[in-house]
Write a structure and sequence with these properties.
about 150 residues, 8-stranded mixed β-sheet, 3-stranded antiparallel β-sheet, 11 strands, globular
């Protein structure tokens, strides 16, 4: 665990303090994450209850039958992804590494939807990283079936 970290959106209208932040991060190449971030989502899974958000322009959008994404209503920065369906993944929030005030010190341990990654970029250091295809993600996280634009 990295302990406490702070961060916020591009314009500073939304800020957060998070405790119990792990030092492990993951990358998602699914279509929704790519469209939300403009590239791959590089995120850290933080217990939802350990994040305190401040600012009056935090906007939340249900983006599938099982998850929501939040953004700043002023500058549009993506702030988090969270499972809303009560299941084994409920209670965690995926926070993009780039919105932490200090985005250093995270180790990327997995990449999902690797078969949907555009050929225009690649991340180095894949040795030892767990790589999952879309089919493997659907098998592991069955909630994904029928929940997004790719289904």
């Amino acid at each position: 665990m990295s302990g406490e970290r702070t961060g916020g959106c591009l314009c500073g209208a939304v800020r957060f303090v998070a405790t119990d932040v792990p030092d492990k991060a993951g990358i998602c190449h699914c279509e929704m994450c790519r469209r939300w971030t403009g590239s791959a989502l590089i995120g850290v899974t933080v217990p939802t209850g350990s994040i305190t958000w401040s600012g009056e322009v935090l906007r939340v959008m249900q983006t599938s039958a099982w998850a929501e994404r939040a953004f700043c209503g002023k500058c549009g920065s993506g702030l988090y992804f969270s499972v809303t369906l009560e299941n084994e993944w409920y209670g965690n929030t995926e926070v993009p590494v780039g919105i932490f005030d200090d985005p250093n010190g995270f180790e990327i341990t997995n990449e999902i939807y690797i078969d949907h990654k555009p050929d225009s970029y690649a991340f180095e250091g894949q040795a030892g990283r767990r790589l999952l295809t879309r089919a493997e993600c659907v098998e592991k996280f069955g909630v994904l079936e029928g929940g997004g634009p790719e289904d």
